[in-house]
């Protein structure tokens, strides 16, 4: 598999352009799913890295066309710039479906950890401003609750993430005035109906498990189609927070493929 970065300009009024990286995995079909992927990093990592991300590789191996948007280096990981940057990237990809797939390609947004938060916010904005364009959202242990008060979050110290996530939330939200904005903290959004179907993934030993599951349940209660996968503690899922791989990749590929096929039926 190879991956490279390319600056994709949206229009003359938007500067600088958002760097995007194309993942090439299994051979894509005539109308492959198009996935805009947003990496994690606790809202603290800025600048693009040359190493490929395990999530991007896993999704590309299903035959999807995966583009990773470097929203952090442009936005400096603050709200609303980070979410707006990712939304513009999604809008750009929607308008260029034929370049990367076909006019019939389904469009998805995916993100892990902090990127999962941004992906959920973008999905809400897409519902409001791009109705019918987004086929689904893939939320992989989204860092979605700034309260950080769930039972599972007590395990954050065990993997050395509590302070990092706390610092990340403070950086992303900056001031209390945006704390209740639904795009900033989607778990606090009071209106989830009509948002794109969701594939939601976590693991039994994930400190973000409870907030991930709670958001999935709220989506389902609002009439959103939700596919949920909870990996066992032994699979190494929490390695995604430090760019590690585990035994979960093949199963994640199967979950994504099943998710796409159900939406195509």
Structural class per helix/strand content? alpha/beta
Strand order of the largest sheet: 1-2-4-3-5-6-7-8
Report the span from N to C terminus.
30 Å
Q: Please give the CATH architecture.
A: 3-Layer(aba) Sandwich
Strand content: 15-25%
- Helices and strands, in order, run as EEEHEHHHEHEHEHEH
How many whole angstroms does the radius of gyration measure? Answer: 17 Å
Q: Quickly count the domains.
A: 1
Outline the structure in words.
The protein is of the alpha/beta class. It has one domain (2-264): Rossmann fold (3-Layer(aba) Sandwich), CATH 3.40.50.1820. Helix content is 33%, strand content 19%. Strands 1-2-4-3-5-6-7-8 form an 8-stranded mixed sheet, sandwiched between helices. Helix 1 packs across helix 8 (249-264).
